[in-house]
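User: I'll paste a sequence; please echo it back and then give the predicted structure.

Assistant: Echoing your sequence first, then the prediction.
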Amino acid sequence: MGDSRAYAVYPAGRIEQLTHDHSLVKRLEELGHLNKEEAANFPHRNVLIRALGQGETLEIDVFTVPFPRNGYLMLCSDGLWGVVTDQEILRSISNAPTLQRACQNMVDAANTAGGPDNITVVLAQMIG
């Protein structure tokens, strides 16, 4: 919903975006009106076309994916994915002794990058 995202983080150093952004800029990109560079600099890139609280009905995307073997699921807001690179995310996770520390490392990285928006991140790891 909106522009918060879910990612699969694999131990081999790969991150895969699982969700689809519901933003104006993403829609314009999909329609071919903007390329990646134009989308990154689009003045209204924070405008959402579908978000919690926008109307009486709520249309959500529901899907199932396998949990990344020996990896993580990560939920985060655009305050993180908009300013922290995949490599910084992987480094934050691999250098942390706990998931809580990994999340704090990512929040710190986003703040160091300017912290232009709210920063939320949750990591989940399957045990066993």
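The beta strands are 5-10, 14-17, 72-76, 121-125. The mean pLDDT is 86.
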